[in-house]
Hints:
CATH class of the largest domain: Mainly Beta
Strand content: 35-45%
Structural class: alpha+beta
Distance between the termini: 72 Å
CATH topology of the largest domain: Jelly Rolls
Number of strands: 7
Amino acid sequence: MFSRLKTSAMLLLVIIPFLSTVASSSQQATTSTTTAFTTQRTLFSQAVTIDKAGIKYPCIYYPGHLIFTAGHGDRIMGSFTSDSPVSFYVMSESYAQSWGIGTGLISSCTPTGTKDDVLVTGRDVTSLSIDVTINNPGTYRFIFINSDKSNAVHINFNAGIVGS
């Protein structure tokens, strides 16, 4: 009888850890992982032409509505090429309005807003790639400025958003 008890005890010592392993394996097997896939949505894909700056104005901005809305954590990606140097900005719509965009006259050819107002700055460039993450949800605008008094500028522009 003592030997049966000893054998039963030894079996329990072997079976209990085994059952514990099986229980934890079955718990692991029922755990699932969800992966979110996000795709880039096109905001703009277009050719842009800006007239030459005149005698009266030191610079001309593109009057098209390159406006978009973005949420916290959204990524804005894009690029452009142009046949002449331009200045390019990504800025909050509220700052763009206070700077004079939409009125026909901007207060200067270079914005002086904070990093929360002006997210991207590219001065006098013929090409630029951007990849910026939005921290403050809201409405933003892409702005192109031509300071050349002799020539109009032709731009190929693409931009997209990943997120909301």
